[in-house]
Design brief:
The chain is mainly alpha-helical. The chain has one domain (22-136): Cytochrome Bc1 Complex, Chain D, domain 2. It has 4 helices and 2 strands. It has helices at residues 2-43, 46-50, 95-104, 124-136, and strands spanning 67-69, 83-85. A two-stranded antiparallel sheet has the order 1-2.
Length: 141
């Protein structure tokens, strides 16, 4: 009798453990994405260069992080990126490449970024949060 009871209980216990761990993983992922959103919008300010603006300098609704021409230029002759690419969805980077980029400031090709993009030196947790947030966004063409 106890053997049948145990046999019926174990699958339910294991199912609960699996389902429960999925919920916990979703909470962790949600928290990581929210932290990434905070870093992108409030700390690293990626949104400032990577989002298009209207003639009054206001962000275009629905176009955040889709890429934009820079509204300023270098004051002395130097290599300079005239536009910031779209980073919503991070289509041109694997998650691993993007994390490494944010930690080292080098593209997957090994070429450093051009000003005005700073060569960030994020720690791994920060970089992973930023990448999780950017990958959670739908890329726009």
């Amino acid at each position: 009798m106890s053997r049948n009871l145990l046999g019926g209980f174990m699958p339910l216990f294991l199912l609960g453990a699996v389902l429960g761990s999925g919920t916990k993983a979703a909470e962790v992922n949600s928290a990581q994405i929210e932290r990434g959103r905070y870093l992108v919008h409030g700390v690293a300010l990626c949104i400032d260069c990577h989002s298009p603006r209207d003639e009054k300098g206001q962000f275009l609704a629905g176009k955040h992080l889709t890429g934009a021409a820079l509204g300023f230029a270098a004051t002395v002759p130097m290599p300079w990126a005239p536009a910031a690419p779209g980073i919503a969805g991070l289509e041109n980077f694997t998650p691993e490449q993007a994390v490494k980029f944010l930690m080292t400031g080098e593209r997957p090709s090994g070429v450093p970024v051009l000003p005005p993009m700073p060569a960030y030196r994020m720690d791994q947790d920060e970089a992973e949060a930023v990448v999780a947030y950017l990958k959670s966004l739908a890329p726009q063409k």
